[in-house]
Amino acid sequence: MNWTTICAYEALLPERGVCALVEGTQVAIFRTYEGELYALGNLDPFSGAYVLSRGIVGTRKGEPTVASPLHKQVFSLVTGRCLDDETVSVPSYPVRVGDDGRVEVSLEQRVEVGV
Amino acid sequence: MNRIVVVGYGPTAHRLVETLAGKGFGGTVTVIGEEPRPAYDRVHLTSYLSGTSAEDLTYEVPAGITTRLNTRVTGIDREARQVTLADGGVEPYDVLVLATGSAPFVPPVPGAEHAYVYRTIEDLDAIRTAAKDAVEGVVVGGGLLGLEAADALRALGLKAHIVEMSPWLMPRQVDEGGGSVLKSHIEGLGLSVHAGAGVQEIVTDDAGQVTGLRKPDGTLIEAQVVVFSAGIRPRDELARSSGLEVGPRGGIVVDAGMRTSDPAIYAIGECALAGGMVYGLVGPCNTMAEVAADRIMGGASAFEGADMSTKLKLLGVEVAQFGAMDGALDVTYMDPVAGVYKKLFISDDAQTLLGGICVGDASPYTSLRPFVGKALPASPSDLLFSGAGAQLDLPDEAQVCSCNNVCAGDIRTAIADKGVTDVPGLKACTRAGTTCGSCVPMLKQLLEKSGVEVSKALCEHFTYSRAELFDIVRVRGITTFSELITQHGQGRGCDICKPAVASILASLHNGHVLEGERAALQDTNDAFLANIQKNGTYSVVPRIPGGEITPEKLIVIGEVARDFGLYTKITGGQRIDLFGARVDQLPEIWRRLVDAGFESGHAYGKALRTVKSCVGSTWCRYGVQDSVGMAIALELRYRGLRSPHKLKSAVSGCARECAEARSKDFGIIATEQGWNLYVGGNGGFKPRHADLLANDLTTDELIRTIDRFLMFYIRTADRLQRTSTWLESLDGGLDYLREVIMEDSLGICADLDAQMERHIATYADEWAATLDDPDKLSRFVSFVNAPGVPDPSIVFASERGQIKPVMAQ
After folding, report:
1. What is the number of structural domains in chain A?
2. Which member of B491, B521, B793 has the closest CB to residue A50?
3. How far apart are CA B145 and CA B158, in angstroms?
4. For the domain that residue A27 is a member of, what is the CATH number?
5. CATH 3.50.50.60 occupies which residues in chain B?
6. How confident is the model over B360-403, as pLDDT tens digits?
């Protein structure tokens, strides 16, 4: 798997997202309150605008989520699936903290799991 | 059946055309009215004298209806099926509906031509003018309308007398016992009641000025204004002259389908004689209009008489009557000290409720009227003590709203099947409570008893309403979202509760919205202190208080827009919006604006937006106060105030209202004496004219009242509830609001004042503060790993010499 280094872990604030440009692809990276990292495609499929990194991070029934800042559709941070419209989803990317404490993202899409 | 012509444009005609429009009538409908305006609300006519404008009382003409106002119909050519107009024109019809209403009855006594009547807006204008030079006034007629007219004279500053032919007041609604309680109430207010008295003549002096009213016993009541309110006579002259059947004492004879003796002509409302009766109440007249509309469109509904029950509050005293006014048995509760009189009429076997009369406490009307003709739900003595009726379960067929003929079952259906959960929803869905409003308490009861648990929970993370969360935060001194959700909620929040809590924290503590953990609570607009647009760019609105701006500042805005290639547009709030900025451009743009003396306009926040103004007395030849100065003062006072939803305001320098203040959350209109304050207005999806909260305030009084209004709203409103819906859902409405913020009935005014003082003292421009904070500034980048790179997905085309966004798909 190819990993791209993005930024220091500390540059991510709890429950906020940032956007990274990875080989021309816009990736939204989120840090939850507990400190876990998630990465989704930054394109909001409902509006066609690259804005998901600017949504509000929260939970729905325990699942970490982000809400589109334009029309508030909620996406699972874990799977990228839209929890308000099951026919829609956004790409979900692997993300980790590297040995040097920096955040790394891979563009190889995570296979969607679960029901 | 393509052309319907309606003669007369009063409330009944309005209900007819509204019903036709609602049923999707496909032909043309033309309404011909002799008054200068469409139908208006006569139930609340008296409020015209306390500041409600004619426009507010006037109903909106349904779409697709043609109106011809200021036009009198002079004849009906039944052969040719057309009506002739005073101007010589004709209007052909397939169906004609007469809704000509009634005229006040003026007894033929000497001098009657000098008296006024109380029916139209023009009548009220005339009475108001006459009252200017008068000291005393007399109303002839002690019925419902007569007492209302007397109240109006009193409100105009006159010593008022009421002359009533019957031995007691309101003989149609109350019996002798109720009448005596009513009389002592009214006399306690300083009015004189002359019951059992008639009119000999209206006395005038040599100049033709009215000096008094002489009773048949020769005594004179001194008065400079005389108003007749002694009953109505149907306006049936048109029907009469065209050969339609009329009753021996007037009224156009109609069958149960509201059809006259000519099958192409219907008659509805106060001009109709239905089942031998002329009806003057709004409820039955509305029913007639609905029956006629149904029949015209092929239906078979019928008018089978009407409930003449009445409940009203006149001169501060509640009077109600329902069902029959006699019975084999009656039970009376009378408390002359408290001024309460309640009586129930019961069948001879003491099983069935027949009717009731209430003076001073109308609560039995609400709880018991639906049981008329049915088994008594409890013992009469229990029912007569106030409050005892509140717990009764209404049968489905029991009528709840008599104005719009809505039954308890209709309300329950709306709650169960359509998911309605509040009174405004019930009003919209069933029309119940939309006319006189007396059944609103019953709607609330039905909602409460519906078993539908009305969840006030903000979202899945908090079981509390916004108002409850506000109190929790305030009383427990909570300063962070994490503290609140750990102690009083569950999970980690969402896009609903986080901005709501952020707003509460901002209202109470007024720190920077992007400080620490609070940054993660904000919607993107607050997070970037700008308004997100469809392509992910933002717009920028600098504050321009009152809409006043110097040429130098205008030039700066122009230069900034030009240098950053922004689209510019003048907003409805008298400022300038600059569109198309990327997040990474926002700090550079604001650096230029702040250096030129601008500050955040909070266009992105649930906060005070603008205070619009007209140019006012400084320039305008009509202005009576400095509206621009006031608007600037208010905008600077309340800038940055976070609230449940956005707040808009305006100040007009005179009654011409060029600033459109009455469409605002709080609007101010200058008077010769000071300022009138209107609250709860709204444009937007559901327009609402603001209500007059207080008039002729001094500047200090005005500011104190707005301070409290805003803080009370911020404390108690739901999330995203504008002041208009907040006011409508407020138990007790405008009167309650006045009690709380002007009479301090809850003892919270000092607290509200202190809270506003704190807000004003701690205000700081959040854009200037952001520019001074490298930490906050570092978040304004398109890409965290490539800070200098603009977002390549943002593309613009050109239109009319400016940019416009182009979306990828």
Report:
1. 1
2. B793
3. 17
4. 2.102.10.10
5. 3-102+233-296, 112-230
6. 888 788 778 878 888 887 888 777 765 444 556 777 877 788 77
